[in-house]
Amino acid sequence: MKAKIRVPFFETSVKNYIYGDAVMAYAKAADAAAKEYDIDVIFVAPYTEIRWISENTDRIMVFAPYMDALRPGRGMAEILPEALKAAGAKGVVLNHSERPMTLNALKKTIDRANELDLITFVCADTTSEAQAIAHLHPDILNPEPAELIGSGKVSDMSFVKEVISAVKAIDPAILVEQAAGITTAQQVYDFIMAGSEAAGAASGILTSPDPFSLLNEMIGFVRKAKDELAKRNR
Amino acid sequence: MKAKIRVPFFETSVKNYIYGDAVMAYAKAADAAAKEYDIDVIFVAPYTEIRWISENTDRIMVFAPYMDALRPGRGMAEILPEALKAAGAKGVVLNHSERPMTLNALKKTIDRANELDLITFVCADTTSEAQAIAHLHPDILNPEPAELIGSGKVSDMSFVKEVISAVKAIDPAILVEQAAGITTAQQVYDFIMAGSEAAGAASGILTSPDPFSLLNEMIGFVRKAKDELAKRNR
Amino acid sequence: MKAKIRVPFFETSVKNYIYGDAVMAYAKAADAAAKEYDIDVIFVAPYTEIRWISENTDRIMVFAPYMDALRPGRGMAEILPEALKAAGAKGVVLNHSERPMTLNALKKTIDRANELDLITFVCADTTSEAQAIAHLHPDILNPEPAELIGSGKVSDMSFVKEVISAVKAIDPAILVEQAAGITTAQQVYDFIMAGSEAAGAASGILTSPDPFSLLNEMIGFVRKAKDELAKRNR
Amino acid sequence: MKAKIRVPFFETSVKNYIYGDAVMAYAKAADAAAKEYDIDVIFVAPYTEIRWISENTDRIMVFAPYMDALRPGRGMAEILPEALKAAGAKGVVLNHSERPMTLNALKKTIDRANELDLITFVCADTTSEAQAIAHLHPDILNPEPAELIGSGKVSDMSFVKEVISAVKAIDPAILVEQAAGITTAQQVYDFIMAGSEAAGAASGILTSPDPFSLLNEMIGFVRKAKDELAKRNR
């Protein structure tokens, strides 16, 4: 069975900004905040750190940044789904704008992830791409206009709302995250209040003056939004 | 400083045949044989297991199956050289026939490896490719005709001798290994006696009825060849 | 303005089976049949023959087998959309199973084609891929399960009907073709009678004993189906 | 038999700067200058224009900007060597920095070109890449540091001389061209006088105020260098 993820959740990755011990320190900070605020956190780790982080954290869900669709056997240097699972990964990011996939490979890789109960987190660019991907039924869809990634500029609310409703019209079970260009905890709060089931940040945190406190604050603001939404729905 | 490797040495990888605990068991067997025979062994591990194996073995030298040339920063899903180094990798395989690289990327990636003191193990196909790659001055060159890989058929001795002398004529410091299609310890012995500084096997071991004992026997035969060569040179 | 295409139409390509004069002879045969039966025919030609065929035929619509999304300027060896247009291409095949594209590149390339009034003919594999691509609004969608291409086995009618209705539910303006594995004129007729707006064949014709007469017969059967459908709709 | 090329020669391409009729006009200008100065000129044309230009010029040798190594048969959108040959191409550019090839593909494609008597024009970046490629024995080697291409900055003479002697030491039959960053006829002259068997320009001509006259002047300066060299060797 796939790991359960409770909404709203937070997602972060380290991309290639840090490595080794620094990734572990960042993962520990994410884990502490996940516990402090009782918020689910997806932590996208480099392949080399998936096992280490999985074994040394309690609450974060470790995801791989990509995987191939191949099956055990020959080959070299591919990312074998079974190896990720064995190392403790709970899910995988697919079709990130820095690692775009053909539609056919994306479909096959989502199928492989489902076979191994790995949660699929699929990135899209425009609304039409998000709609396209919705037909492949990933667990989580992250529409982020490529020009915003790492830019410090966020999507505008009309795009956010449009893309959520476009995706849900095709498959209401898909969770929709906003992540492009997020640099403040307030943006995290705003996107969730606007209907996103998750918010995420990587560059925005790792290039900030105090990454650990910003990470904590962002996860705290997911909690704040969650409480506010619960109040409204009462 | 790069790790020192003593010739003749043995090299093995798991490709995608096994994953998780089975890789660790195989690595432990390689480590035990490396100690038993006092022979250096390169162990090419999946990215996810590099750290785990490095921390839990004593003698084998863990290599990554590939890396990118990029530097810390943006990106997603690339194999960052610094991350491999931090995880304990002592070297990296480049240009494997299942992960061929452009000449330009190969040059840049060898430069990056040198910068981080990672040993470069570069695969070639024909003699002319081996000569070409010799001009990029990798530490180890592994010429293996693509049609032999995983085939259970080995290179003939005339190819082996021709390619060694062709490579040494360009750069005598490059260590030359034979690995394609090796399935028996006798072949390991023969290739080293013919002038190879190393022999390697992956499919030949992992698809055999008793991989651990074949692995041990192969490493033992590297010892046997080493002793025989020492005797001759006395 | 894009060239107008009347349904039902026929589509053929030469892939790499033939080249040079043989392509021209095949194009002339397609052109003659298009005139004989007054049926629109898309002829996918190698880049090198697009201009030559466009200038020496009257009725067939010459398509390129692929193009890049780049704009005039630097680069080398890319397929510049403006160059195809200038050579006489009326449209372009995208995402063929032998040249799969990332979703993002596919979107951008469809946009470029629209900008230049080139008709987009986009291939898909499964129904879910066809639905995905429908959100990118190509002019023609050709769902062909990869395992059938060049196999001599055709899609079954339930797949054909399912995929047509799935695509039309998203965008009724998209024309849907069936092409995978077609080897007989009767199959052409059957697919069109089942609701396909077009049928196509390449390997099935070019590896047959008498390609020209089979090509003529297939285009004749498009006519036959067209007449039959007209009669029914009277 | 391959077309004979007399040294020193000139080479130009249009990259993606121009297309259609503008390519033909540029080809006609190159052809006229080739005749005026009795100098061999390689003209790298987009695939779509190879046949048209070959049939409408007398002296220039039309080259393709790339080709694949595959053989006639299945596939789609590849550049089939036989199709280039049939269209009139006399040679092919391989491994351009905007279309880098794996070492293995480069070797196979050079072999295919030799099989069809197509002249191979292979690009390299640094001296070590040029040496590497020399072992694959192309007909022409064009070492051009990637950072100079389209930059308007030329290689310095010490690089030019070093790379020529490094290549000739491996295979004296390889013709060495200089092309990176050339913007003036004087540079063409200087590179040839320094030992290059050819000079080439693309961006430098096509982004100049008067491309046709600059093209003519450059080819004229190849003549001037040729006459000067002949005088010296008398």
Main beta-sheet strand count, sense and barrel state of chain A: 8 strands, parallel, barrel
Biggest chain pair contact, residues each?
Answer: A-B, 41 and 40 residues
Question: What percent strand of chain A?
Answer: 5-15%
The total of helices of chain A stands at 9
Oligomer: homotetramer
Radius of gyration of chain A: 16 Å
Helix fraction bin of chain A: 40-55%
DSSP strand count of chain A: 8
Distance between the termini of chain A: 31 Å
Main structural class of chain A: alpha/beta
Strand order of the largest sheet of chain A: 1-2-3-4-5-6-7-8
Order of helices and strands of chain A: EHEHEHEHEHEHEHEHH
Mean of all residue-level pLDDT scores of chain A: 95
Low-confidence sequence ranges of chain A: none
Tertiary shape of chain A = globular
Account of the protein in words:
Four copies of one chain form a homotetramer. Chain A has 234 residues and is of the alpha/beta class. Chain A is built from nine helices and eight strands. Chain A has helices spanning 21-37, 50-56, 81-87, 103-115, 127-134, 157-170, 185-193, 203-206, 211-233; strands spanning 9-13, 41-44, 61-64, 91-94, 119-124, 140-143, 175-178, 198-201. Chain A has an eight-stranded parallel barrel, surrounded by seven helices. In chain A, α5 (127-134) runs parallel beside α6 (157-170). Chain A is globular. The mean pLDDT of chain A is 95. Chains in contact: A-B, A-C, B-D, C-D. The C-D interface holds C 13, 15-21, 46-52, 65-66, 70-80, 82-84, 86-87, 93, 96-99, 150, 203 and D 13, 15-21, 46-52, 65-66, 70-80, 82-84, 86-87, 93, 96-99, 150, 203.
